[in-house]
Design a protein that fits this description.
Blueprint (H helix, E strand, L loop, with lengths): L1 H11 L6 H52 L41 E3 L8 E4 L15 E2 L2
Antiparallel strand pairs: 1-2, 2-3
Protein backbone atom coordinates (compact mmCIF):
# COMPACT_ATOMS: atom_id res chain seq x y z
CA UNK A 1 0.00 0.00 0.00
CA UNK A 2 2.86 2.33 0.65
CA UNK A 3 4.00 1.95 -2.97
CA UNK A 4 0.54 2.87 -4.15
CA UNK A 5 0.50 6.14 -2.14
CA UNK A 6 3.92 7.06 -3.31
CA UNK A 7 2.91 6.59 -6.95
CA UNK A 8 -0.21 8.63 -6.38
CA UNK A 9 1.85 11.51 -5.04
CA UNK A 10 4.24 11.42 -8.00
CA UNK A 11 1.42 11.22 -10.53
CA UNK A 12 -0.55 14.01 -8.90
CA UNK A 13 2.42 16.40 -8.81
CA UNK A 14 2.54 18.97 -11.62
CA UNK A 15 6.02 20.01 -12.66
CA UNK A 16 6.73 23.59 -13.70
CA UNK A 17 8.33 26.83 -12.62
CA UNK A 18 7.43 28.77 -9.55
CA UNK A 19 6.49 32.42 -9.70
CA UNK A 20 9.78 33.37 -8.00
CA UNK A 21 11.81 31.51 -10.64
CA UNK A 22 9.94 33.26 -13.43
CA UNK A 23 10.47 36.68 -11.83
CA UNK A 24 14.21 36.01 -11.45
CA UNK A 25 14.48 35.06 -15.14
CA UNK A 26 12.53 38.17 -16.19
CA UNK A 27 14.79 40.36 -14.03
CA UNK A 28 17.91 38.89 -15.65
CA UNK A 29 16.49 39.39 -19.15
CA UNK A 30 15.57 42.99 -18.30
CA UNK A 31 19.09 43.71 -17.02
CA UNK A 32 20.65 42.25 -20.16
CA UNK A 33 18.33 44.23 -22.43
CA UNK A 34 19.13 47.40 -20.51
CA UNK A 35 22.86 46.86 -20.93
CA UNK A 36 22.97 45.57 -24.50
CA UNK A 37 20.07 47.51 -26.05
CA UNK A 38 21.61 51.00 -26.15
CA UNK A 39 24.84 49.78 -27.74
CA UNK A 40 22.91 47.86 -30.41
CA UNK A 41 20.81 50.95 -31.21
CA UNK A 42 23.96 53.06 -31.40
CA UNK A 43 25.45 50.67 -33.95
CA UNK A 44 22.23 50.77 -35.99
CA UNK A 45 22.43 54.57 -36.16
CA UNK A 46 26.06 54.47 -37.22
CA UNK A 47 25.14 52.09 -40.01
CA UNK A 48 22.67 54.60 -41.45
CA UNK A 49 25.36 57.29 -41.53
CA UNK A 50 27.76 54.90 -43.26
CA UNK A 51 25.07 53.97 -45.78
CA UNK A 52 24.52 57.66 -46.56
CA UNK A 53 28.26 58.13 -47.14
CA UNK A 54 28.35 55.20 -49.57
CA UNK A 55 25.29 56.45 -51.47
CA UNK A 56 26.78 59.95 -51.71
CA UNK A 57 30.01 58.49 -53.16
CA UNK A 58 27.93 56.60 -55.76
CA UNK A 59 26.03 59.78 -56.66
CA UNK A 60 29.31 61.67 -56.95
CA UNK A 61 30.70 59.05 -59.35
CA UNK A 62 27.53 59.19 -61.44
CA UNK A 63 27.81 62.98 -61.59
CA UNK A 64 31.41 62.61 -62.81
CA UNK A 65 30.17 60.35 -65.63
CA UNK A 66 27.53 62.96 -66.48
CA UNK A 67 30.27 65.61 -66.61
CA UNK A 68 32.44 63.47 -68.89
CA UNK A 69 29.56 63.08 -71.37
CA UNK A 70 28.00 66.55 -71.17
CA UNK A 71 31.01 68.66 -70.24
CA UNK A 72 29.48 70.09 -67.05
CA UNK A 73 27.76 69.06 -63.86
CA UNK A 74 23.97 69.41 -63.74
CA UNK A 75 22.70 72.79 -62.59
CA UNK A 76 21.14 73.02 -59.14
CA UNK A 77 17.74 73.49 -60.79
CA UNK A 78 18.21 70.25 -62.78
CA UNK A 79 19.19 68.41 -59.62
CA UNK A 80 20.09 64.78 -59.29
CA UNK A 81 17.19 63.84 -61.59
CA UNK A 82 19.49 64.78 -64.49
CA UNK A 83 21.24 61.48 -63.77
CA UNK A 84 18.06 59.58 -64.63
CA UNK A 85 16.29 61.76 -67.20
CA UNK A 86 17.82 63.96 -69.89
CA UNK A 87 17.30 67.54 -68.72
CA UNK A 88 16.86 68.61 -72.36
CA UNK A 89 19.75 71.05 -72.66
CA UNK A 90 22.48 68.45 -72.05
CA UNK A 91 24.14 67.71 -75.39
CA UNK A 92 25.95 64.37 -75.19
CA UNK A 93 23.78 63.00 -72.39
CA UNK A 94 24.29 59.24 -72.44
CA UNK A 95 22.27 58.17 -69.40
CA UNK A 96 20.64 57.09 -67.33
CA UNK A 97 23.63 57.17 -65.02
CA UNK A 98 21.80 55.47 -62.15
CA UNK A 99 20.21 52.06 -62.65
CA UNK A 100 17.34 52.35 -60.20
CA UNK A 101 16.64 56.07 -59.99
CA UNK A 102 17.83 58.62 -57.47
CA UNK A 103 17.91 56.97 -54.04
CA UNK A 104 16.56 58.52 -50.88
CA UNK A 105 18.84 58.82 -47.88
CA UNK A 106 18.60 56.18 -45.12
CA UNK A 107 16.09 58.41 -43.25
CA UNK A 108 13.83 58.49 -46.35
CA UNK A 109 14.61 62.12 -47.28
CA UNK A 110 15.84 63.42 -50.63
CA UNK A 111 19.55 64.08 -51.04
CA UNK A 112 20.42 67.74 -51.46
CA UNK A 113 22.46 68.90 -54.47
CA UNK A 114 24.07 72.30 -55.01
CA UNK A 115 26.16 73.44 -58.00
CA UNK A 116 28.43 75.29 -57.48
CA UNK A 117 28.96 73.95 -54.00
CA UNK A 118 29.97 75.90 -50.93
CA UNK A 119 32.25 73.19 -49.49
CA UNK A 120 33.36 71.42 -52.69
CA UNK A 121 33.00 71.86 -56.45
CA UNK A 122 29.53 70.38 -56.07
CA UNK A 123 27.76 69.60 -52.80
CA UNK A 124 25.79 66.40 -52.32
CA UNK A 125 24.50 65.91 -48.81
CA UNK A 126 21.87 64.55 -46.48
CA UNK A 127 20.56 66.60 -43.58
CA UNK A 128 20.45 63.53 -41.35
CA UNK A 129 17.62 62.10 -39.32
CA UNK A 130 16.13 65.47 -38.30
CA UNK A 131 16.19 66.87 -41.89
CA UNK A 132 17.56 70.16 -40.52
CA UNK A 133 20.94 71.83 -41.00
CA UNK A 134 23.53 70.91 -38.38
CA UNK A 135 22.97 68.60 -35.47
CA UNK A 136 24.91 65.91 -33.68
CA UNK A 137 24.96 62.13 -33.94
CA UNK A 138 22.23 60.84 -36.23
CA UNK A 139 20.98 64.40 -36.77
CA UNK A 140 24.31 65.57 -38.21
CA UNK A 141 24.71 66.39 -41.89
CA UNK A 142 26.50 63.88 -44.13
CA UNK A 143 28.06 65.08 -47.35
CA UNK A 144 30.81 64.70 -49.94
CA UNK A 145 33.05 67.18 -48.17
Amino acid sequence: MQKFTRKANVIGRVSGFTLIELLVVLAIISLLAGLVGPSVLKQLGGAKTKTARVQIKDLEQSLEMFKLDVGRFPETSEGLNALVENPGNADGWNGPYLKSGVPKDPWNHDYQYVNPGTRAEIDIFSLGQDAAVGGEGEDSDVGNW
